[in-house]
Write a structure and sequence with these properties.
By secondary structure, the chain is an alpha/beta fold. It has one domain: Rossmann fold, CATH 3.40.50. The protein contains 14 helices and 10 strands. An 8-stranded mixed β-sheet has the order 3-2-1-4-7-8-9-10, sandwiched between helices.
């Protein structure tokens, strides 16, 4: 019988293709041999429609069968037992619809006893093309730098979501502020999802000590210069994708600071702790450079880009993991690692950004990643790491950290204001979903 004590509940958003599918598949592969034999993985994946959801479940069932066949060769008779230890469930979620986020959250809160991990993976690039002359110049001048920290993608400007509120029925017009499309898909939709699912992440049985984990997905392209506090949604500027990832870094790294706890506790619904709950933890991962459909290219260019990625790895780039299976290593490690391991590493090195890395032979690993204004762990004077560092990176100083912390504090205040404001607007329009 499936109970909260013997089930490990994981939600992965955007699992129909690319990195999300890689994360879901890798979760199955790593859960079965590493977790207790009496524990079951309940894997909940979200897609935007039924067709994609059905295709994802089919792909994951095949992955499970493949994993079981390998195990059967080593230990005959184990296949059936392993298959029973994975339960797959699909749900609908459109991150560009705040009502859709609320509806999914309500369904899960009504049907799931708890959540152990939520991996916020889904997102969009918002790019319209590539500046080819600049791309050729960047790559030919410095191959690894040009392919690891690209600055030649052309971003859309002014993209906003469809209206979140229905048309007003009376004479007066209903005011609705713009909601940046890339901002909403990459961060704000997940931000609301994390808030609504926080009660499930906080639920802990007496046998469980580890807090629920909310894992946000960042990028190597979370450049400081792309973020403007005055245009936090990056509607009027270029590089909306990069800006949304910088926002993710700022929010995650500063979520543990005393100065942000008023907002963080409100966000996580942990203003009044109880003996039956544990405050969820926010972690940050990125997939390295992974070959996914997030940047749509015609077939010939897609094949060429994949080759470019492999060449970058052979030239010594630790971030060019290329395949989604290897790109998933950081997120899956954060999902399954012992809490004592994570706590020890953060106590020793500070709160960090965990990335999927690889060596020239294709052996993947998890590596801390430098964040502008935070370094590797927010510690002044830390020793710079030799590999995987941007050539434009600067040593962490008290001034740069102070700015990072200040920006993070402002972001937490503004995002909480936005969350409350949108909830009020949805309720007043009669479309908001009550979580009670």
């Amino acid at each position: 019988m499936l109970t909260p004590d013997n089930a490990f509940y994981v939600l992965v958003t955007g699992a129909n293709s690319g990195l999300g599918l890689g994360i879901a598949a890798r979760l199955i592969d790593e859960f079965l041999p590493t977790r207790p034999q009496d524990e079951t993985l309940v894997l909940i994946i979200t897609t935007r429609n039924q067709r994609k959801g059905d295709a994802t479940i089919t792909a994951l069932k095949e992955q499970l069968r493949k994993t079981c066949r390998k195990a059967e060769k080593k230990l005959p008779g184990v296949s059936r037992v392993l298959q029973q230890r994975v339960v797959l469930r699909q749900e609908r979620l459109d991150l560009l619809s705040l009502v859709s986020v609320q509806q999914l959250s309500k369904r899960l809160r009504d049907t799931v006893p708890k959540l152990d991990v939520v991996i916020c993976n889904a997102g969009i690039g918002g790019w319209t093309g590539i500046n080819w002359p600049l791309a050729f110049k960047a790559i030919l001048t410095s191959w690894k730098t040009g392919t690891t920290w690209p600055t030649y993608k052309l971003s859309a400007v002014g993209w906003t979501t469809k209206p979140q509120l229905p048309p007003a029925t009376d004479v007066s017009k209903r005011e609705e502020p713009p909601l940046g499309e890339v901002f909403c898909a990459n961060f704000f939709g997940h931000y609301l999802l994390g808030h609504y699912l926080a009660p499930l992440l906080a639920k802990r049985s007496q046998s469980e000590q580890a807090p629920g984990r909310l894992i946000w997905t960042s990028s190597l392209e979370a450049y400081e210069h792309t973020f403007n506090m005055q245009d936090i949604q990056c509607i009027m500027q270029t590089e909306a994708y990069e800006s949304s990832k910088r926002l993710t870094d700022l929010m995650a790294m500063t979520s543990v600071l005393p100065s942000t706890q008023t907002h963080v506790n409100k966000y996580l619904g942990y203003e009044q702790p109880s003996e039956k709950t544990t405050k969820p933890r926010i972690y940050l991962s990125h997939p390295g450079i992974t070959h996914t459909p997030i940047m749509p290219l015609i077939f010939v260019l897609d094949v060429a880009w994949r080759l470019v990625c492999y060449i970058s790895r052979w030239l010594g780039s630790q971030w060019h993991v290329v395949t989604v299976d290897k790109g998933a290593v950081a997120a899956v490690w954060l999902a399954l690692a012992k809490q004592s391991t994570l706590d020890t590493m953060e106590q020793r090195e500070g709160v960090g950004k965990w990335g999927s890395a690889i060596d020239v032979w294709g052996n993947e690993r998890v590596e801390r990643t430098e964040v502008e204004g935070w370094g590797w762990g927010g510690e002044i004077g830390e020793t710079p790491r030799k590999f995987g560092r941007s050539p434009h990176a600067k040593a962490l100083t008290p001034q740069s950290k102070e700015k990072f912390v200040h920006d993070g504090e402002q972001c937490w205040a503004e995002l909480e204001r936005m969350r409350v404001d949108w909830e009020r607007r949805l309720d007043e329009a009669g479309v908001g979903v009550r979580m009670d």
